[in-house]
Design goal:
Layout: H1 15-28, E1 43-48, H2 54-65, E2 69-74, H3 87-97, E3 100-105, H4 110-117, E4 122-127, H5 133-147, E5 154-159, H6 165-174, E6 180-184, H7 193-201, E7 205-209, H8 212-215, E8 221-225, H9 235-241, E9 260-262, H10 283-288, H11 290-302
Parallel strand pairs: 1-2, 1-3, 3-4, 5-6, 5-8, 6-7, 8-9
Bound molecules: N-carbamoyl-L-aspartate (NCD).
Length: about 300
């Protein structure tokens, strides 16, 4: 079901796909710190036009752990993009040199364009404020690993729900499960209307809140994102809104025993560092799951 597929939008994957992916990721956990030869001879090209730490490294590590090789670049510096090469031409070259392309770009739709140009599968590692499907798969995988299930959980999303592409993709993925979603943000940072329309048409139960303290005692998961400063069109709006939410030890006084706090990282100031040593903090574990999850993705797509 995964073989040869592009991963551009979370909307393209159903529950059966996700369960297959999660089972495979669980299997790959065994190999996440060793080396196997499942993808020996395969080459992954990374084309990262925007900054990244975890996503790029975990893709690269995943490919190497599977016995494959990695080529590519991050930042256009040193590539022909500096000389004015178009995205389509750059992708055509990578397509000729590799078996799979992983792309991150500041423009929405860049990954889709790449997939149209390339014959090899293309994975979207984040395009603008729009999509970040593999992060969302990793997020739901972490929930599935922590609780053994996703159905029946109350999931709070806190922060810049409008500009964070991880939120957009996570909401889309969650429509495959029977969960209740609490959208907690300043009014200006609510998810975009087309996302809300889509998830509502798929029957996702949701409610809007502005204050985490009001609902935190009901939650099984709190998923926090930073304010996406670089995506604000109006800098004054950013100034007004920055620092408007934060998880501190105080926030966590009255919570469920098994609450987990997730964050795609990087964190700025939206989770106090003292929260890191509480049993609720799972964001570093979540980041570590990036390797087996991406091993599973690469293997399922490139399997012989
Ligand atoms: C996110 C991203 O790049 O969208 N980071 C990530 O991939 N782990 C989140 C962010 O930048 O806030």
């Amino acid at each position: 079901m995964w073989r040869g597929r592009d991963v551009i939008s979370a909307r393209d994957f159903n529950r059966v796909d996700l369960e297959e992916l999660f089972e495979m990721a669980r299997y790959m956990e065994k190999y996440a710190k060793s080396r196997v030869e499942f993808l020996k001879g395969k080459i992954m090209a990374v084309a990262f036009f925007e900054p990244s730490t975890r996503t790029r490294l975990s893709f690269e590590v995943a490919m190497k752990r599977l016995g494959g090789d990695v080529i590519g670049f991050w930042g256009a510096e040193g590539t022909s993009v500096e000389k004015g090469e178009t995205l389509a031409d750059t992708i055509r070259m990578l397509d000729a040199y590799s078996d799979i392309i992983v792309i991150r770009h500041k423009y929405e739709g860049a990954a889709k364009l790449a997939a149209e140009v390339a014959e090899s599968p293309v994975i979207n590692a984040g395009d603008g404020a729009y999509n970040h499907p593999t992060q969302a798969m990793l997020d739901v995988y972490t929930i599935w690993r922590e609780f053994g299930t996703v159905d029946g959980l109350n999931i709070g999303l806190l922060g810049d729900l409008r500009h964070a592409r991880t939120i957009n993709s996570l909401l889309e993925i969650l429509t495959n499960f029977k969960v209740r979603v609490y959208l907690i943000s300043p009014e200006l940072l609510r998810p975009r209307v087309e996302t809300i329309n889509y998830i509502q048409s798929r029957g996702l139960m949701l409610s809007f809140h502005t204050n985490i303290e009001e609902v935190i005692h009901e939650l099984d998961v709190v998923y926090v994102v930073r304010i996406q400063k670089e995506r604000f069109i109006d800098p004054l709006e950013y100034e007004r809104i920055k620092g408007s939410y934060k998880i501190t030890l105080d926030t966590l006084k009255n919570v469920k025993k098994n609450l987990i706090i997730l964050h795609p990282l990087p964190r700025v100031d939206e989770i106090d560092h003292r929260v890191d040593s509480t049993p609720y903090a799972k964001y570093f574990r979540q980041a570590a799951f990036g390797v087996p999850l991406r091993m599973a993705l690469l293997y399922l797509i490139l399997q012989p």
